[in-house]
Amino acid sequence: MKIGGNNYRTIWLDGGGEAVAVIDQTKLPHSFEVIRLSTMQEAARAILTMQVRGAPLIGVTAAYGLALAMRVDPSDASLAEAISHLARQRPTAVNLRWALEEMRRHLQPLAVNHRAQAAFSRAARLADDDVETCRRIGAHGLEIVRAIAAKKKPGEPVNILTHCNAGWLACVDWGTATSPMYQAHDAGVTLHVWVDETRPRNQGAALTAFELGAHGIPHTLITDNAGGHLMQHGKVDLVIVGTDRVTATGDVANKIGTYLKALAAKDTGVPFYVALPHSTIDWTLDDGFAIPIEERSGDEVLQLTGRSATGEVHVFDIAPDGCRAANPAFDVTPARLVSGLITERGVCPATREGLRQLYPEGQCAA
What's the whole-model pTM score? Predict the structure, then answer.
């Protein structure tokens, strides 16, 4: 994707491979800054503090973090300790665990003195695979958008609503939920995107609006509670969201507020799709309510970060002193509310049978 006319991925090797560079997403949209991760601990901190976020990107960052650990100490003990430490940083997104297990399987059989180079090569492969996976998700989602566009009057836009950020900033490139939007826009389909602000961290306002604007896709920022109203008045043709974990039966864990969008879409007859790569499917779980839900600091609810009229970025308190806040970061949308899952292998029903048709090897993974 492009920022200021320049092509970017969200993560890349820097300084001749001495460090890993990432876009610091906590500074967007007011400042575009790149930071260097030189140690496994720095990679873990970037995941925990959401300098990098989004399930696919978390997984790739963890893979590179493990490679940084192997450069310092490639022993079996170091491998196990680094995997355990990185896996603890974010509990909900299954991609984190998936990427680390992929790295373990690749590195464990190797001689210790070969592990560091192999780890960096494998992490780079995971990054490249994510780019291609997201491109394919977009190609399959494009057909859904085209089908809706074909029923529209000439020049009338397809109105898509999305929640949180499942864009290229959440992946290595393209994104999951946004990939169909980018590909439809590039193919000449007239689009307009309703962007949920996505409190409390405002990933929609800060990130989705930022990247859609950089790509030239028309969009409008809305409050999180406005989506149902827009659906009732026929102003939403399609909802596409991402996900941090999908069970073997099609239940979906995504950013808090997704469930309410799915309810509104069901009530108003608006198609509700979830875009995901294979690495987001948790074949070990049948019940979405068994997914661990991350509880983040109440400060995220009690405060807002914004830019003043003089251009300075400040953190503002928005609640009375002493007010308590709960901050569950995700909710679960039952499969019955999901119109379909958009994957790199095609679109399927949000059911065990639908997933197994696309991923027959899932039976072996369960």
Answer: 0.94
In a shared domain, residues 122 and 197: no
Q: Do strands 252-255 and 330-333 pair parallel, antiparallel, or not at all (unpaired)?
A: antiparallel
Rounded Cα–Cα distance for residues 175 and 10 (Å): 10
Find all residues with CB under 8 Å of 60, minimum gap 6, and list them: 11, 99, 123, 126, 127, 130, 172
Q: Where are the alpha helices (DSSP H) in 152-257?
A: 179-186, 203, 209-215, 227-232
Retrieve residue 208's tokens. 């989705």
- Asked whether residue 274 is domain-assigned, the answer is yes
- Per-residue pLDDT 10s for the chain (366 aa) are 888 888 899 999 997 788 999 999 999 999 999 999 999 999 999 999 999 999 999 999 999 999 999 999 999 999 999 999 999 998 877 899 999 999 999 999 999 999 999 999 999 999 999 999 999 999 999 999 999 999 999 999 999 999 999 999 999 999 999 999 999 999 999 999 999 999 999 999 999 999 999 999 999 999 999 999 999 999 999 999 999 999 999 999 999 999 999 999 999 999 999 999 999 999 999 999 999 999 999 999 999 999 988 989 899 999 999 999 999 999 999 999 999 999 999 999 999 999 999 999 886 555
348 & 284 share domain: yes
* Residue of 130, 173, 244, 282 marked catalytic: 244
Q: Which domain holds residue 73?
A: 2-128
| CA trace torsion 236, 240, 241, 243 (10° rounding) | 150
205 and 318, same domain (yes or no): yes
How many domains would you assign to the chain? Answer: 2
Q: Which residue has the tokens 């790199």?
A: 344
Instruction: State the Cα–Cα distance between residues 243 and 288, nearest whole angstrom.
Output: 12
d(CA 272, CA 260): 11
Same domain, 124 and 150: no
| CA pair distance 211, 123, nearest whole angstrom | 25
The letter for the amino acid at 173 is D
Q: Is 244 a catalytic residue?
A: yes
- 123 closest CA partner among 82, 88, 91: 82
**Cβ contact 348:357 at 8 Å:** yes
Tokens in use for 67?
């490679």
**Rounded distance, CA 69 to CA 84, Å?**
12
